[in-house]
Amino acid sequence: MFDTRPYVVDTGNHRVQIFTHGGTYLGEWGGEGSGRSQFRRPNGIEIIQDNLYVVDTGNHRVQLFTVGGTYIGEWGSEGSGKGQFKEPTDIEASEPNLYVVDTGNDRVQIFTVGGTFIGEWGSEGNGKGQFNRPSGIDTYGDKAYVVDTGNHRVQMFTTGGTFIGEWGSEGSGPGQFRQPSGIEIYADKVYVADTGNHRVQIFTVGGTFIGEWGSEGSGPGQFRYPSGIDIRDEGIHVVDTGNHRVQIFTIGGTFLGQFGN
Predict the structure, then answer these.
(1) Which residues contact 151 (CB under 8 A, 6 or more apart)?
(2) pLDDT at residue 256, rounded to an integer
(3) Can you tell me whether residue 197 is helix, strand or coil?
(4) 114 vs 136: CA distance, rounded Å
(5) C-alpha radius of gyration, the chain, whole number
(6) In degrees rounded to 5, what are phi and psi of residue 137?
(7) Is 164 within 8 Å of 154 (Cβ atoms)?
(8) Angstrom distance (rounded) from CA 90 to CA 230
(9) Residue 26: its pLDDT value, please?
(10) CB contact set of 252 (below 8 Å; sequence gap of 6+)
C-alpha cells in the first residue's frame, strides 16, 4: 500500500511536514543540523511503499525514513566521487532503482533502493546530455526527464542515461522557460514548474506544448517562483515557494484551494 498523503519538504525550516490532500496538518519531523533526522535545506522527496527518501541538500546526502518519520539510514557525503554529492536537489524512483539529481556536480546518479551506487550520467555544459545545475527529474516508462535549470530546458534520456532529445530555451513564450525546476508526468502529459516565469506549463511526453496557467502574484492561481509539482488522482499540488504555500488545482489547472502561509 503506497502512502499518498502530501509530504512537503519545508526547505527554509529544515523539516518535512505531512498533510491531508485538503491541507490539514498531520505532523512533522526534522530540524536544522547534520545528525540523524536533521536537515540543511532539504529539497526532493520520494516514497516507495513504506519508505520515504529525503534529499538533504545542504548535508550532501539522502536520508531514509519510514512514512511516519522514523529514521532508517542514509548515504552520501560531500564530493564528486561515485556516490558523493554536491547540493543534490531531487530524487525519483523507477524500481528497482533510484535516480538522484546531483545538482552541484551537474549529473544524475543511479542507486539501488538501499543506496548502493550503480552508475551516473551528465557533465557541466550546454551540449546534449550536459547540464547547468539540474534540479528536477521524473521517469516515464523507460525514459527519464531531467529539468536542466541553468540551460532553461528539459532533456530526455533512457533510464540508463542515453540522450534522446530536449526542448525549451530561455524566454517567456509557450514552451520557453526561465530557471525551471519541478517536473511531474501524469496521464501521458509532462507538467513543468517554470519557476522564473511564475507558471506551470504542460507538454506531451514528446515535448509538444499543450498549455499553461499561472502568473506572478499572490492571489489564487498565481505564483511566486513555484518549485515543485505532485499529481495524484485528487489533483495537482504546486509548491508556491515565494508565497510560502501549496496550491491545489484540477488536472486542467482550475484552482481548488491552498494551505500554508
Answers:
(1) 126, 131, 132
(2) 96
(3) helix
(4) 21
(5) 17
(6) -150, 145
(7) no
(8) 13
(9) 96
(10) none
pLDDT at 75 (0 to 100): 98
Q: Any idea what DSSP says for residue 191?
A: E
Give the sheet arrangement for strand 163-167, strand by strand.
136-140, 143-148, 153-158, 163-167
Indicate the DSSP class of residue 50: T
Q: Which of 26, 27, 71 is nearest to 53 (CA)?
A: 71
Q: Which residues pair with 202 in a beta bridge?
A: 191, 211
- The Cα–Cα gap between 248 and 171 comes to 26
Residues in Cβ contact with 18 at an 8 Å cutoff, skipping those fewer than 6 apart: 5, 6, 7, 8, 25, 26, 27, 28, 69
pLDDT for res 3: 66
Q: Quick one: cell of 195?
A: 519557476
Q: Please state the pTM of the whole predicted model.
A: 0.96
User: 9 with 42: CB under 8 angstroms?
Assistant: yes
For residue 171, which amino acid is it? G
Closest by CA to 159, choosing from 92, 63, 113, is 92
C-alpha cell at 168: 525549451
Q: Closest Cα partner for 43 from 246, 241, 243, 189?
A: 241
Residues of the chain with confidence (pLDDT) below 70: 1-3
